[in-house]
TrEMBL record:
This is Acetate/butyrate--CoA ligase AAE7, peroxisomal. The keyword Flavoprotein does not apply. It comes from the Eukaryota. Keywords: Ligase, Phenylpropanoid metabolism. PANTHER family: ACETATE_BUTYRATE--COA LIGASE AAE7, PEROXISOMAL, ACYL-ACTIVATING ENZYME. One of its GO terms (biological process) is phenylpropanoid metabolic process.
């Protein structure tokens, strides 16, 4: 018995235990491949040794300003080298990175900066006036308690010298000058506790009130490695930054790329032409993007594409449920799509529709339908289930019974910053509640049917807006579509389709187009699913490509109750 106790009595010590953190990936990359390209942004190129030195300079410069443990550094920037460096340099100083959505308005940014109590604000020159307005709003609200953050402005590669001088005249420090104040040999230390916070990110804005999602070093480490294993990424992969790094910390891929000693190709603005060009010129092997970006790629004009592709390009998509028709179109273009699913609260994607060899023999349309499911848990996620919300019992794996998708494990956030009520609700019964409704198939793969708030209840029947959208995407004229509930005098609610048409479609007779879409719908779906209203125009989106359904629901409500619905 004593011997058995001795097995578990062996203590941790400095030789056999270190807190997990993804920061060590950068140190290793600089050692193993010091001369390999780490980051490419137009004519600007850095090696892994240079990136390591620049990140240490950033950590040192922040430390010189007493920015360390417990402090937050906000970054407002598109996909440029500085935001990549901040994902290492900020936590190397012991601080927490708060990557801010560049498409938010000034009042929202003011809220985020105040809520996070950011000690430093790094901002790309293009967004300096936005940041300045946000700080002005925050100062007015805070009154005498306002302590402005240290302002660091990142010069645009084709910047207007006068605009830069304006920023410097407002008290900002230029980023490269700021780095020069730091030590390239700065002796950074890993966190003493892997539960320490590494990142703070705010929910994307598909709902009215953003919440601050706090992530820890352990989760970032595990998810960074899980990305590579799940996706089958090789050492030295060339990754194109189409996914914003401010969204869920780029799904942890800044840290994954360091672990793989890969190369990041930065893309300030995402266009189909830019994506195809990077594939041809930079040898891109992988990129991540929301379905809306994939839609742009497959519908790009011929003169903006490079087909056939010079190699198989691996694509990871998440952020919204892609339609089978979109997945099929991507495969026809030569892209191999891995479909993942997750939330800001789960470090980004944390489930994957793991491809099975037996699917290779299936027709392409069947493959696309199977790949449209959200799949199974990541290696770093310990628990994934679809449960009855009343008693938390798992739903049967019949592909029909709808329940809520819940998560458990190291890939779940620490919690929401300063929001105990939301934490209690989200972590009820020992699971993280996603708010997404789905089913479990007999093979164990889950499939989203809708957000709980997006279910349309028409005449007492539940209608999945996602399933209606998947069918509408098969219509040859539809580029993008989102379906929400509209008040209906007879049925309570009925489906309302907001549609963006493809380029080249004759838009002169919207009434005829709407009738054609309804006729198409009646041939493909149950009668009560058919949209009773069709509205044409661009769809409102977050910076990560998610359609803002709450705005469309408000618009549908403003349209008033549908009085003559008979279907």
């Amino acid at each position: 018995m004593a011997a058995e106790r001795d097995i578990d009595d062996l203590p941790k010590n400095a030789a056999n235990y270190t807190a997990l953190t993804p920061l060590g990936f950068l140190e290793r990359a600089a050692l193993v491949h010091p001369n390999r390209k780490s980051v490419v942004h137009g004519s600007v190129q850095y090696t892994w040794l240079q990136t390591y030195q620049r990140c240490r300079r950033l950590a040192s410069a922040l430390s010189n300003h007493s920015v360390g443990f417990g402090k937050t550094v906000a970054v407002i920037a598109p996909n440029i080298p500085a935001i990549y460096e901040a994902h290492f340099g900020v936590p190397m100083a012991g601080a927490v990175i708060n990557a801010v959505n560049i498409r938010l308005n000034a009042p929202t940014i003011a809220f985020l900066l105040g809520h996070s109590q950011s000690a430093v604000l790094m901002v790309d020159q293009e967004f300096f006036l936005l940041a300045e307005e946000a700080l002005r709003i925050l100062a007015d609200k805070s009154k005498s308690n306002f302590k402005p953050p240290l302002l660091v402005v990142i010069a645009h590669e084709s910047c207007d010298p006068e605009a830069l001088q304006y920023a410097l005249g407002r008290g900002a420090v230029e980023y490269e000058k700021f780095l020069e104040t730091g030590d390239p040999e700065f002796a950074w230390k890993p966190p003493q506790d892997e539960w320490n916070s590494i990142a703070l990110g705010y929910t994307s804005g598909t709902t009215a009130s953003p919440k601050g999602v706090v992530l820890h070093h352990r989760g970032a480490y595990l998810m960074a490695l899980s990305n590579a294993i799940i996706w089958g990424m090789n050492e030295g992969a060339v990754y194109l930054w189409t996914l914003p790094m401010f969204h869920c910390n780029g799904w942890c891929f800044p840290w994954t790329l360091a672990a793989l000693c890969g190369t990041s190709i930065c893309l300030r603005q995402v266009t189909a032409k830019g994506v195809y060009s990077a594939i041809a010129v930079n040898g891109v092997t992988h990129f991540c993007a929301a379905p809306v970006v994939l839609n742009t790629i497959v519908n790009a004009p011929q003169d903006e594409t490079i087909l056939p592709l010079p190699r198989v390009v691996h694509v990871m998509t998440a952020g919204a449920a892609p339609s089978p028709s979109l997945l099929f179109a991507m495969s026809q273009h030569g892209f191999r799509v891995a479909h993942t699913y997750g939330l800001s609260e789960t470090y980004g994607p944390s489930t994957i529709c793991a491809w099975k060899p037996e699917w290779d023999s299936q027709p392409p349309e069947t493959q696309a339908r199977l790949n449209a499911r959200q799949g199974v848990r990541y290696i770093a996620l310990e628990g994934l289930e679809v449960v009855n919300t009343q008693n938390m019992a798992p739903v049967p794996a019949d592909g029909k019974t709808v329940g809520e998708i819940v998560f458990r494990g190291n890939a779940v956030m620490k919690g929401y910053l300063k929001n105990p009520k939301a934490n209690a609700e989200s972590f009820a019964n020992g699971w993280f509640h996603s708010g997404d409704l789905g089913v479990k198939h007999p093979d164990g793969y889950i499939e989203i049917k809708d957000r709980s708030k997006d279910i349309i209840i028409s005449g007492g029947e539940n209608i999945s807006s996602v399933e209606v959208e998947n069918i509408l995407y098969q219509h040859p004229a539809i580029l993008e579509v989102s379906v929400v509930a509209r008040p209906d005098e007879r049925w309570g609610e009925s489906p309302c389709a907001f549609v963006t048409l493809k380029q080249g479609v004759d838009k002169s007779d919207e009434q005829r187009l709407a009738e054609d879409i309804m006729k198409f719908s009646r041939s493909k779906m149950p009668t009560y699913w058919v949209p009773k209203s069709v509205v044409f125009g661009p769809l409102p989106k977050t910076a990560t490509g998610k359609i803002q359904k709450h705005l469309l629901r408000s618009k549908a409500k403003e349209m008033g109750s549908l009085k003559k619905s008979r279907l």
